[in-house]
Design brief:
Length: about 80
């Protein structure tokens, strides 16, 4: 449900939607995420899944496997 705020003119306006989890994390000073390079988006996707599933690793196995495969590809280079 969208949150509605009132302004001084008594008009209601929807509040802006919150950004996706971790939208700006790769741009921040988080060196660990930056070190993942091409796998960083998969890592952040996994983090989003864990947040959305209340840290249920079983429900995020597709994300885990995708990150693992990306990491393995990086190590072969």
């Amino acid at each position: 449900m969208e949150k509605v705020t009132e302004n001084p003119n008594s008009e209601t306006q929807p509040s802006p939607a919150p950004p996706p989890n971790h939208q700006m994390d790769a741009d921040d000073d988080d060196e660990n995420v930056k070190q993942l390079k091409e796998c960083s988006s998969l890592y952040l996707s996994l983090q989003d899944c864990l947040v959305d599933s209340n840290r249920d690793w079983k429900s995020c196995q597709k994300h885990v496997q995708a990150l693992k495969e990306c990491h393995e590809r990086r190590m072969k280079k």
